[in-house]
Amino acid sequence: MGNYIIGIDLGGTNLKAGIVDTDGKILHRLSTKTNSHADSQIISNQILLLIAEIIQGARIKESDMIGVGLGSPGLVDKRGETVLFSPNLPRWRNIPIKRIVAERFSKPCVLENDANAAAWGEKWAGAGKEVRSLVMLTLGTGIGGGIVIDNKLWRGASNVAAEIGHMVIQMDGPQCNCGNRGCVEVYASATGMVRRFKEVLKSGKFSSLKISDEITARMISDAAFQGDRASLDIIEETGRYLGIALINIMHILNPEMIVLAGGMIGSGELLMNPIRQVTQRGAFEASYKDTKIVFSQLGNDAGIIGAAGCLLTELEISV
């Protein structure tokens, strides 16, 4: 048995890889832009190439490599072998990526939903080390979710549980990439926040950012820290939408912890304050009191570390 796992985190924007040890530490990393609108073969080849590059770059022996943990957005089949559908990677469908990776490198591979992997990363090596139950939301291009109950990932009857981003909070809201209307992802993902911000600018509200700019969630956050009123308002509104989702989570699952991760947590307390205000006002007191809402400790590394940890769990190697 080797000493290292390759963790892969496939996102709608970036494809990231890391060499992870059995304590959950990343020793070497690489990333590249995801060719998100490419066909499935191109994305598969991107993954294979990145794995080969990180093995070569880290100068590890093949015998030192336990295997590959792969976190992918979207729905994974019951057997954990095939990516069925991913709203933010429209042509990434029915891909037997577990078999493709395992055959290419002659090593065990585990395939997990990316947000499940990130949730397991926080449970194994991050904010949730001391709790038995947590729910994680990954706030990026879309919104993913992962649930840990009694120290085990909860995947549901069809392996598609915790699609929190597709919780409908407004039945007649804008259409989501999943096909439904009014999903929380439409309002509170980075993509949704940028869309709503542009609508505000079109309505004539003043901002230091201009509608002609290539606006990103990071730009909105930076402008908010500089006191831009329109940016502050849109982040506060985003926090309120997230708060509604968290109330539902508290009332259904009553977890010990809810972890927020992804690029949007860079807004810090500007985002967290309205989340806490809405949940304190709307959740049952017992639910709110006993559920900690925290930011990820592992940050953008949660998916890589969690994917690696999922492989160790699959192989029944103690983590």
TrEMBL record:
It comes from the Bacteria. The keyword Nucleotide-binding applies. The keyword Cell division does not apply. Pfam families: ROK. It is an enzyme of class 2 (transferase). Its EC number is 2.7.1.2. InterPro entries: ATPase_NBD (IPR043129), ROK (IPR000600), ROK_cs (IPR049874), ROK_glcA (IPR004654). Gene3D superfamilies: 3.30.420.40. Keywords: ATP-binding, Kinase, Nucleotide-binding, Transferase. Belongs to the ROK (NagC/XylR) family. This is Glucokinase.
